[in-house]
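Appendix B: complex inputs.
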Amino acid sequence: MERDEDLLTDLREAAGTELFGIADARAYGEKAPPGHRPGDYLKGACSIVLLGTRMLDLPLDGLPGTRKEYTVNFHVANTRLNQALFAAAGFLQERGHKVFPVPYLEMPGWNLDKRPAWALKLLRHLAAIPKVHDVLNARVLWENLSFRHMAVEAGMGEIGLNNLLLTPDHGARVRLVALLTSAELPGGKPLAPSLCRPERCGYACVKACPVGALDREGGGTDKAACLRYYIKLGLPGINGLRCGMCVAACPMHSPRFRGETQRKKSE
Ligand code: SF4
Ligand code: SF4
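Resulting structure:
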């Protein structure tokens, strides 16, 4: 029988991602609402394996002018993570564990450089129909199993005012996928929140949102406003460009900002 530590080391190697974390699926399930719990998708789920990668800085730093480059970076990162996810799932399955991969589902199907204006217009009209809008909102932009909340349970970071996962080394500039498994793996513990510092960054994410979908009080994202903006950029999951402004604005990826923040805290 493979020791837990050996299994973990080999699993990490099979996945090969820069960010890797484990959450206790039962502890997470107790906090998540019905329909969003690991056990709803895999009976007997014991662990959640989180795999992550960092996105490049330049396409983010150039937003909104570099939207196409950022969108490609976003999809490349997700595609690489999906590949790593299925490699990790195969690794555990071969060892007799049950697995349920939770991949990133939005994959682009169009040429982002040559998007016919008439088709975009038609898609926007279609997406404005309430039923289509609801499907897009529920099934395309927002997942049933929240990667960021599962990553918080794994001790990989905290949720910032921008409603994204902030990690200690890469801030909000990360992408994630998850694997539910019956394997008992030694998990991390949630961190005490200390990363999001609105008073230091001047509420940068709130100010950067082009449609005011974020608020200073941490009331969550106005998903309808965010989705309406996305539809202006194309149709999410088909030919849409990504917004990315609340990712790019957060300075937590920068060692300089983190250093200043830590200095300020110790003063
Ligand atoms: S993705 Fe864009 S529109 Fe949506 S909350 Fe972030 S900045 Fe605002
Ligand atoms: S931009 Fe500032 S307020 Fe927003 S998540 Fe980052 S640190 Fe927090």
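Strands lie at 19-24, 47-54, 99-102, 158-159, 165-166, 174-181.
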